[in-house]
Structure formats: structure tokens, C-alpha cells
Design brief:
Number of strands: 14
Largest sheet: 7 strands, mixed
Mean pLDDT: 94
Low-confidence stretches: 401-410
């Protein structure tokens, strides 16, 4: 059985994370994802940010399995090459600010005239409509504006960001979902679609039930640290050598926990006989549990929870995660070979689909596939490619490699 998206071609004008992560997922599922980059390259290549042996870890993670073609879209010849590639493609993705695609002459309506079935997706911070459409946006801006930071962090501490770039990643994931939906819709109903993907919309949606609760009750979710507004116990507890989360919300698990720590008296105590009582008496319940857990080690408490069928886990650091036997058994540490860096270990896509083995392909060098893509897709000869490179309409590895020096990103 072949790849699910074998035969699907994506032209990616995306940069950094929000405009590239969706393409990474599509590439993992077998789509041919061709990064269309300027001579300077995707800004994710900046080796001063997340530096790793002269490259950026952002680029190495977000662009695995893709091809890199350097085109100058501001030149007449470069733009015409892009139009010809669009005629052979299924999807075009970008994360320029609203209006940029139109100014470049590559907006959805223009591309649709060249390819009626083309699917386009634009990922922006605030969306292509609304009063803030032109506002500059980075992940932190969206985490703050969306309300997520307001209820992330310790109760008596300042707002905190989610450690991962949640807004960027959510924008990429929703772009991928939009593209897949548009491709299925094209097969069922015909015609291409345009997806307006907003990072802010994505995170407002991910306020989930707390958002719905506020809209219908006026209750505002407050910072709880690792605890949960609606469930007790559901948080991290300190042990002698670190922290372990304990999640015994359901009565089955609560009874198991009380018996495991030799406190059967708590099972029927009116202050903690059910979840509603435990939430109302959070201080008492947490205090009783914390005094027991503080005498144990991470290993002792983790073993107790597992033996007694109580949901919980140690609070792992990166070293523990990637050394973990289960994580390894699930294939979540893999290796690809990079042309200049050699072996690069990475965490692959979590997608596990029968009949398809995820490929281990490197993030491309800048312009690595310019010649091969133009030759194979457009039928250009070696002389034509050389002339285009000399004219600056395209970039080949030999002509663009210099722009990857760290000093160029200063």
C-alpha cells in the first residue's frame, strides 16, 4: 500500500513554524511538498535561533521531507515559473501578511485562473478579515491575546506561556486539516477552495470547555498551576526527589488511591466523598495527600500508582522523555541523514497508519531541488536552468549557499 497522499503536490511559501508545520504533516503522509524560497531562504534557517551545528533546529524539524526550490517571485521569469508549477500542483500554502499574495500576483483568484482545482491556504496571526488583520503577530502575541496566558501559571504568579509555540503549531495543524478537507471536498464536489487560517482563531477555539463555560455562565477560569479548576486531585505533587502528577478524579481511582496510601477513612469523609466535595475542600484534600507523597520518592510513588491502577506519571524532563522505554518502543525517536550535518535524531510524526511507514528524510538545503524540480516538472534543460540562475530568477545550491552564513542574519 502506498502513501495516503502520494500524487498530491504542495507548493509551500510558508516561513518558520505556522506556515510550515502543516506541510510537514502532509509530507509525512506522502505528499510532495516543495518549499518555494527566496534567495535568502526561509527565515527559519537563521542559525542564530535554536542553533544546532551551524543550522537552526527550527528548520531541521519543520521542514523534514520537503524539497527546496529557490525562485525570485518579484522577477518576471521567476513568477512565470511559479505559475507553471501551480498548474502542476494541488495546494499552495503561505503565511504572509494579508494582502501580500495579492500584491505578488499569486492570490487564490489569480492562481485559480491557472488551475481551477487549486487549494490555497493562508496562515496569519489574526486572519484575513477583521480590524486586527494587519497587526504583527508572533506566537507569544497570540498566546497572550487569546486568553491562554491569563490562566496558565501558578495561582499567585504572573501569566505564563505554554512552553511549546502553541499558537504557531495550532495554526499549522489547522492549516493541514483545512487542506485535507478541501482536497476531499474537491474530489466529492469539484473545484478548489481557499482556507483563511488564523492563529488567534485556532487558540480561541482551543479554550475548549473553559471558553464555553465562560460564555454561558460568566465564570472565568483562573490560574491553577498544575491543578485543575474542576477536578481534585488532578495536579503535580512534590516527592523527596521531584514531582509526580496524580489524576484520581473518578471515584474508582479515588478509592484506589485512598486504599493505596492507607487512608480508607478519606473514602467516605464528607469533605472528599466525591469530586464536587473535593473541589469545594481542595485545601484539605491536597494537604492530606501532599503530606503522604512528600515522604516518597518519584520511583516509589510512580510504582504505587501503577500497581494500584491510579492514573499518574513522573514530571519528566527532556532527557527522561527521550530515554523512556515506552517512547522508544513507540518509535518516537528516529534518525535522518542530513547532507552536511550527518545523522540528525528527531521525534517523527505521531501518525501511525496501517500500510504506511513514515519516511526518514532530511530537511532540504537551500535550493537543493531547484534544478531537479524544474527539470522533472517543467521539462527545462540544463542550459535553460543555468540561464535562469545567471539571471537571478532561480537559485541553485552553488549560488545560494553563501546566504546561509550567520553574519547574513545579523
Amino acid at each position: 500500500m502506498g502513501a495516503m497522499l502520494e500524487g498530491v503536490t504542495v507548493l509551500e511559501l510558508g516561513q518558520v513554524i505556522a506556515g510550515t508545520f502543516g506541510g510537514t504533516i502532509l509530507a509525512d503522509m506522502g505528499a510532495e511538498v516543495i518549499k518555494i524560497e527566496p534567495h535568502r531562504g526561509d527565515t527559519a534557517r537563521n542559525p542564530q535561533i535554536a542553533p544546532l551545528r551551524g543550522e537552526s533546529a527550527i528548520h531541521l524539524f519543520m521542514n523534514r521531507g520537503k524539497k527546496s526550490v529557490v525562485l525570485d517571485l518579484k522577477s518576471e521569469r521567476g513568477l512565470e515559473l511559479f505559475y507553471r508549477l501551480v498548474e502542476t500542483a494541488d495546494v499552495v500554502v503561505d503565511n504572509f501578511r494579508p494582502g501580500v499574495m495579492g500584491r505578488l500576483g499569486i492570490d487564490h483568484e489569480t492562481l485559480k485562473a491557472r488551475n481551477p482545482g487549486i487549494v490555497t491556504a493562508t496562515v496569519t496571526g489574526f486572519g484575513e478579515t477583521g480590524p486586527l488583520r494587519d497587526k504583527a503577530a508572533f506566537d507569544l502575541v497570540i498566546q497572550a491575546y487569546s486568553g491562554h496566558m491569563d490562566y496558565t501559571g501558578e495561582p499567585d504568579g504572573p501569566p505564563a506561556r505554554v512552553g511549546t509555540p502553541l499558537a504557531d503549531l495550532a495554526g499549522g495543524i489547522y492549516a493541514c486539516i483545512s487542506i485535507l478537507g478541501a482536497l476531499v471536498g474537491r474530489e466529492l464536489h469539484g473545484g478548489g477552495r481557499h482556507a483563511d487560517v488564523s492563529m488567534l482563531d485556532s487558540l480561541v477555539s482551543l479554550l475548549a470547555y473553559d471558553g464555553l463555560d465562560y460564555l454561558n455562565s460568566g465564570r472565568v477560569a483562573s490560574r491553577q498551576g498544575t491543578a485543575h479548576s474542576h477536578m481534585v486531585p488532578w495536579q503535580a505533587f512534590a516527592t523527596r526527589d521531584g514531582h509526580v502528577v496524580v489524576v484520581a478524579r473518578d471515584e474508582k481511582f479515588w478509592r484506589n488511591l485512598c486504599e493505596a496510601i492507607d487512608r480508607p477513612d478519606l473514602i467516605d469523609d464528607p469533605r472528599c466523598c466525591d469530586n464536587a466535595a473535593r473541589v469545594a475542600n481542595r485545601g484539605f484534600v491536597v494537604g492530606e495527600l501532599a503530606s503522604v507523597f512528600a515522604t516518597m520518592t518519584i520511583a516509589e510513588l510512580s510504582d504505587l500508582l501503577d500497581r494500584c491502577d491510579i492514573p499518574g506519571a513522573p514530571v519528566n524532563d527532556m532527557a527522561a522523555v527521550f530515554a523512556d522505554e515506552h517512547v522508544r518502543a513507540r518509535g518516537m525517536v528516529r534518525t535522518y541523514h542530513h547532507p552536511t550535518l550527518g545523522e540528525v535524531r528527531h521525534q517523527p510524526s505521531p501518525l501511525k497508519l496501517s500500510g504506511w511507514d513514515l519516511p526518514d528524510r532530511h530537511a532540504p538545503l537551500l535550493g537543493e531541488h531547484t534544478a531537479s524540480v524544474l527539470r522533472e516538472r517543467l521539462g527545462l534543460s540544463g542550459d535553460e536552468i543555468a540561464a535562469l540562475a545567471a539571471d537571478g530568477a532561480i537559485g541553485l545550491p552553488s549560488s545560494v549557499g553563501e546566504v546561509q552564513r550567520p553574519s547574513d542574519w545579523a
